[in-house]
Amino acid sequence: MTLEPVDDTRSRILRAALDLFAEHGYQRTSLRQIGERLRLTKAAVLYHFPAKEHLLAALVEPLLSDLEKLLDAAEGRPTEQARWTVLEGWVDTMLAHRRPLGMLFHDIALITRGDTYHRLMRIAMRANEFIAGPDAGRRERVRAVQAVAMCSDPVVFFTDVSDEVLRADMLDGVRRLLTAPAPAADEVRSTPARRRPGRPRAMGHEQVEAARRMHAAGTHSVEAIAATLGVSRATVYRHLDATPTDIETV
User: Fold this and answer.
1) Which end of the chain is less packed: N or C, by CB atoms within 10 Å?
2) Nearest 5°: phi and psi at 181?
3) pLDDT tens digits for range 141-195
4) Rounded to the nearest 5 degrees, what angle is found at the Cα of 134, between the Cα atoms of 131 and 136?
């Protein structure tokens, strides 16, 4: 007779929890619901996970662990090699963990609890240092932060795009960002001040869907959604009130 792995029940609970969190959200999913999906009692679930927060930590753990291993692998490498080891590995890691990453996006406030948030911030800071390089100035540090976002955010916003296509687009974008030449100092001084153009009054279909997901999840204010998508608050309000038929004609 073949013995089941020791952690089989624990793994099943985690898979069921991820499914239910994706369907209903973390806050609206109870331990009893998770147990019922697996025909387990709530006590059986509590035996493996004494609190629901422990489920969240366990679901996020593989993502954080893989990111830490990636950064460890970049240690000691030449600056340029380390930079692209982190960037390419970051994209691959985000794509490998698309489902839990999507769960975190919808319940982003949850990671501020416990050690998970501080651990994630340490990972992000290490990644920024590798990408910016030693003795980096302000411009290099700003671009490093932008690069990490470019290697993360599209995974959540473009859920209908395949891993292969999205990976190519993300890395192409970050290469363009990091290889763009800085304007010469005399060019900056001689360029006349221009009036800032207004933010776009319309959003593409993917942006509209992303705005609706953020609004429905209740984790972002309209102002935060507008800042994330680079549009005005009025534009967000207009599209949130629009019907699906109206969206397709944007």
Assistant:
1) N
2) -70, 145
3) 999 999 999 999 899 889 889 999 999 999 999 999 998 776 655 554 555 545 4
4) 75
Whether the Cβ atoms of residue 239 and residue 214 lie closer than 8 Å to each other:
no
Q: What is the dihedral of CA 215, 219, 220, 221, to 10 degrees?
A: 80
Residue whose token pair is 């992303």? 210
In a domain, 195, yes or no: no
Rounded CA-CA distance 250/205 in Å is: 8
Q: Give 162-188 as a DSSP string.
A: -HHHHHHHHHHHHHHHHHSPPPPHHHH
**138 and 72 share a domain?**
yes
Which value, to the nearest 10 degrees, does the dihedral of the CA atoms of residues 52, 110, 167, 130 take? -120
As given in the structure block, the two tokens for residue 212 are 């609706």
Torsion of CA 28, 45, 9, 92, to 10 degrees: 40
CB 180 within 8 A of CB 153: no
Q: Which residues form the domain of 38?
A: 8-50
What digits encode the pLDDT tens for the residues 220-243? 677 777 767 777 878 888 887 644
169 and 71 within one domain: yes
Is the pTM here over 0.70, yes or no? no
Q: Report yes or no on 174 lying in a domain.
A: yes
How many domains, the chain? 3
Helix (H, G, I), strand (E, B) or coil at 151: coil
